[in-house]
Task: inverse folding
């Protein structure tokens, strides 16, 4: 791919960002650090939202657009560190895996003991939280194994 092709691709991507940003603005959704990528009708959307309802509304607005087949949601909630929200590990009996990314295909970087507590840093990617363990390990954990204290 030549320099002209790279420049052309960057301009197209920038225009897509603006177009999808305009669609969300018209729907009353503001995501200041919005990033959208369109690959053959599958949109990947990232940015920071204030709550999950806003994320769901954004995904629905984009799915309703002509030519959009699917939306891969990478939106995250605002940083909740200052709120000091504690979550209890509610695995059946084993330790909770803390992962490098939001999914089971990501490397395990730490563990949180069954029935211990972790601090919620961010709610992310629908069913994943970014947490900090009592040992200071920060990473992703499935929301299915955590409960508010």
Result:
């Amino acid at each position: 791919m030549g320099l002209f092709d790279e420049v052309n691709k960057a301009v197209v991507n920038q225009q897509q960002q603006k177009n999808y940003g305009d669609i969300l603005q018209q729907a009353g959704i503001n995501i200041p650090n919005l990033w959208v990528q369109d690959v053959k009708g599958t949109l990947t959307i990232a940015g920071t939202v204030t709550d999950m309802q806003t994320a769901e509304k954004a995904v629905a607005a984009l799915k309703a657009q002509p030519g959009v087949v699917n939306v891969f949601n990478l939106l995250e909630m605002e940083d909740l560190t200052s709120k000091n929200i504690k979550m209890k590990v509610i695995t059946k009996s084993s330790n909770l895996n803390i992962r490098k990314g939001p999914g089971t295909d990501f490397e395990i970087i730490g563990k949180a003991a069954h029935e211990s507590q972790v601090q919620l840093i961010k709610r992310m990617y629908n069913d994943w939280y970014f947490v900090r363990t009592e040992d200071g390990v920060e990473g992703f954990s499935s929301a299915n194994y955590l409960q508010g204290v």
Q: What stands out?
A: The first helix runs from residue 3 to 26. The longest strand covers residues 42-49. The beta strands are 35-39, 42-49, 70-77, 85-89, 96-99, 108-112, 117-124, 128-132, 138-142, 146-148.
